[in-house]
Amino acid sequence: MPWPQEMKTNASDFNITEDFSVFIHGDVDEYSRISEASVRFVRYMTHKSGIFVTEGFPNAKAISASTASLNIYFDTEAKVVMGIDESYSLNVSDAGIEIRAHTDVGAMHGLSTLLQLIKVKDGAYAFTGVQIKDEPRFVWRGLMMDVGRHFMPVGVVKRNIDAMALVKLNVFHWHLSDDQGFRVETKTLPELYKKASDGQYYTQEQVKDIVKYADDRGIRVVPEFDVPGHGTAFLTAYPELGSKKGMTYSLERNAGIFDPTLDPTNEKTYEMLDTLFKEVAPLFTDVYFHIGGDENEGKHWHENPEIQQFMKDNKLKDNHELQTYFNIRLEKILAKYGKSLMGWEEIMTPNMPKSALIHSWRGVNEGMEPGESLVKAVKNGYQTILSNGYYIDLLLSVEDHYLVDPMPAVALSAEEAGRILGGEATMWAELVTPLTVDSRIWPRTAAIAERFWSAKEVRDVDHMFERLNTMSQFLELVGIQHRKSQEYLLRNIANYQDTHGLRQLTTISEPFKIYSRNAGGTEYKTYSPFTLFADACTSDAKSVRDFRKLVDAYVDQSDQSVKEALARYLNTWAGIADQLKTIAPNAPLVSRVQPYAERVGEIASIGLKALENDEISQEELQQLEALIVKKEDTAVNLDVELAVANDIMRLTQYLAKK
Amino acid sequence: MPWPQEMKTNASDFNITEDFSVFIHGDVDEYSRISEASVRFVRYMTHKSGIFVTEGFPNAKAISASTASLNIYFDTEAKVVMGIDESYSLNVSDAGIEIRAHTDVGAMHGLSTLLQLIKVKDGAYAFTGVQIKDEPRFVWRGLMMDVGRHFMPVGVVKRNIDAMALVKLNVFHWHLSDDQGFRVETKTLPELYKKASDGQYYTQEQVKDIVKYADDRGIRVVPEFDVPGHGTAFLTAYPELGSKKGMTYSLERNAGIFDPTLDPTNEKTYEMLDTLFKEVAPLFTDVYFHIGGDENEGKHWHENPEIQQFMKDNKLKDNHELQTYFNIRLEKILAKYGKSLMGWEEIMTPNMPKSALIHSWRGVNEGMEPGESLVKAVKNGYQTILSNGYYIDLLLSVEDHYLVDPMPAVALSAEEAGRILGGEATMWAELVTPLTVDSRIWPRTAAIAERFWSAKEVRDVDHMFERLNTMSQFLELVGIQHRKSQEYLLRNIANYQDTHGLRQLTTISEPFKIYSRNAGGTEYKTYSPFTLFADACTSDAKSVRDFRKLVDAYVDQSDQSVKEALARYLNTWAGIADQLKTIAPNAPLVSRVQPYAERVGEIASIGLKALENDEISQEELQQLEALIVKKEDTAVNLDVELAVANDIMRLTQYLAKK
């Protein structure tokens, strides 16, 4: 994953043995990007296979091109900027392995593909024999991490960058400021990180380290400093730049859209941003610089008569025009420091220069058509990328994201279509911490990465799910902690007693979707515990699809052979509450789950009885319906839903009609 | 853990509720060490308990001394140096919680104790009501991490420092160079990290960050640059400083004691070390600076006629005197930069200044009495610390380490005894990686920490083991990955099939002890896979002590009531091989374990049969003996031993005699 553009199977595989060795052709030394990538590749391979390779480093003295297992050829070391050649070819057979690419970045993609070809064959590890020719469909394949709401330490960022490289994502969009925190050390404006980060920020050297870390993996880094809205952190440090005079600002602990907004009529605002951008721009090597610009409702602008006067004086007829005025000034500042402005779609106002990159994000939740602004942007002559449809923090099924294509269904000229550069998955962090962020991003983002890389026609959902399961293992190999953390959370919830009932419950329970967890924004504060049962659950819970398919077979095709499997599931779920009961007395967090587990047990029991009796009474059906809609659980912050509820309902309704 | 010097139980406990709040008395702001420690404490508490506290930060506006749950009093912010006052008192009752200390470091120890008082009471989380007065027995309570053999990234070091703080260790000894790598960026001598680290080193800012991180937790950092032996990394960068002329040096990939040694007769050696120390000394705030000095066998000195001539000219009669000459020159260089020299016990030669601190490490394995050099050091007027007995990389039972006291059994004057400052656990890293290092250090080092902190009389092994089990949970709470990594390793070995058979096998299997894994030093290279079954096993395997106690009861007290429990264990172990057989075809690493599992199964089956029949034939007894001594497993790098073998033997011998 992502699925290659062209792939043929070879007759023979390549067996991994201790003789495995790598030879890189061309002018490289041990610190060349491709050399380090090859070392990582060999470490992953040995780590997974347990093979003791004799030569641990590429181009070691004893290795020659003719004897090496893997030969890597490339023409040039790429400067990692938008639009470089990322293509590669890969040939695996028992005669050896060859990666060819124009750039070292392309060759690194070849290594990511090769790693995923590891399989067991005749009781030993081998690489599957294939011929692959591959290149990306879109040039911009991004993952955004919000480190403003919850700070993510360097190690968390790095392991996610490793995972990005595995699935060939190439833009790390780093959302570095928000109402809840400003996350970068600034020497010229030290109040920003000293007063507005709770001590949780990246030093400049850490920023540079991460930028280099990403670059070493062929990944661009686009920083975002969100202005003028989402500005509480800025204003905690510099209240005099706020649009509401005399207001005392302090870091936001809740989630939501807040009023604090930089004052666009105050020259000192531009001085501060000029100082900031001048200092931070050189930390980032990429030309794009994201200034946010979203969700400014302008309440404080309306309330401030001086701002209103300024608008009159400058013939700015509404908040949009005022924000455009602000954005255009920012664009000029950024240009001085060699940066191109990029912002969320709200920046697309009539006078915005066409050089700005429009980040399309709003959709149905915001009362708009999905991707509406994307089409508008390209028709208006802007380059754009799509995030609507890739909001992974909504915790929808990965299927929903996978089927969204960055290229809209409407007719576009070739020129217009060419302005759609790709897309970005967005990991907003109101409800995620370093402990849970991996399980919110992965493995699902691998499917989104496939959407950005692979051919438009690659959209078989079953095939995707099957491969996603394997990707989950490779993601763990490169350091992602989604599985480790889930098990730890269950141990913590069970207070270190038997977790098997809780684990079973996670296979059918999914965290509330579309921001219905923490709906008011105040139930969870930034410092609330995110170590609850909902945090241990994930979207696409493990047994849900399998159960759905069994119900499909039983209901739609009257396939009696699945009856036993259905019964086995229902029987397991019916028994969870009893197991939890044994551990609840010594585990207060299990007590919170118990009412839900009991409800699940009742639902499963009714379903099981109906299945076994091949009938269900109207009374029981109503009882089931009542149980399914009941949500006593929310009172205890349980915030999960029974993801098999509809399918149990479907099964019993079918039985009722029989 | 460590057990306090004085503790009384209060009649009432303190229930944790959402009103929980902290008030710190004295002149503190949010960046004060104690404020940050309090924030961490509250996060750990909420994280474990799932309680949504209303106020997430100490001394928030709504919190006053009279209403706060926890009041912290202290007199001064300590400069973290050797010998500061670390005492504290802690009072917990339903009326509130109070920590009092002379220094903020003492107060932080109070928080570490308080965290461990969390328990479940009446279905909710509470702090146990106690009155504690506590202070350390020794001033030097250290953990050494070797990052030379296998590099440990910043995140690994930091989480181990957090764990140190939890168990009140106060010296992080950082072994930064060895034959396998030099791990610090040096601007004046860039070849050191560029040529001799494989790109795995700490930047100077990372070093400073870690020093500050430790200081924030009341922990001193003592760096070690090991010279003149263990010098391959130095000589890879600067071959001209080697004792063997014309030799080509390259980073060592094997484990062992190697010949490359700095040339003590070459003035340029001192120039290089002076340059290095001048640059790195200011990165560390502590006065002590460890120069290694161990295991120099002087082979290259013997072989080099110029060095022999230099010794004659300078009346240095042997290698010891030459090394003393070297050490004394280093002591003078370090003194220029405000540092006191510390070294492994080999530096203790007749002319060594008494200001040097002697690190006692050799013992039975090196043909000496345990702690021999410790006594010699204090009698010679040196201050000293003990590591012999605390070599956790030997993978002995924690019981062995726990019962070693830094204070020797021989008669010492008060003055002499006062020169024994404490001890250090040493985590040498030939066979550990970032993935396994936590499970090698923890939870066992908590018991060693107790030895260094608590009263000499606290040495009840059963009580220690019981508490160690709880500590394992708190260690996971502060970020230690021992359990997470073990489960991941089992998943990887099982190639993501069912791991329960493997997990059962880890409960009775322990990795080879006392360096018998990798005995020749070449079987495992630095880049070999440390993701094998032995890496998933730990010393003090989970079921071993329990089984031993059952055998004790059955054999020594003829207690028939334990028969069923014994049979249950044996029956489980007898069945492991069958489960592994089902997953082995698709898991090459399981195939390697299979012969061992089968042998374990045969052993357990014979034991089970004997137990059930209440007798065993001589033939079966011999068969059992043969199975137990058999080690076919080593051929496949299995490197584990059946830790219940002797007890099964004991049981069957008893049955044979009956």
User: Main β-sheet of chain A: number of strands, strand sense, barrel status?
Assistant: 8 strands, parallel, barrel
Most residues in contact, chain pair and counts: A-B, 63 and 62 residues
> Which class best fits the helix and strand makeup of chain A?
alpha/beta
What helical percentage do the residues of chain A reach? 40-55%
Oligomer: homodimer
Mean pLDDT over all positions of chain A:
95
Could you give the distance between the termini of chain A? 43 Å
Tell me the number of helical segments of chain A per DSSP (H or I, 4 or more residues long): 24
C-alpha-based Rg of chain A, rounded: 27 Å
Protein model, in words:
Chain A is α/β, with parallel strands linked by helices and 658 residues long. In chain A, 41% of the residues lie in helices and 15% in strands. Chain A has 24 helices and 21 strands. In chain A, strands 10-11-14-15-16-17-18-19 form an eight-stranded parallel beta barrel, surrounded by five helices. Chain A has a six-stranded mixed sheet with strand order 1-9-5-6-4-3, with helices on one face. In chain A, helix 20 (544-556) packs parallel to helix 24 (645-657). The mean pLDDT of chain A is 95. At the A-B interface, helix 1, helix 5, helix 16, helix 17 and helix 22 of A face helix 1, helix 5, helix 16, helix 17 and helix 22 of B.
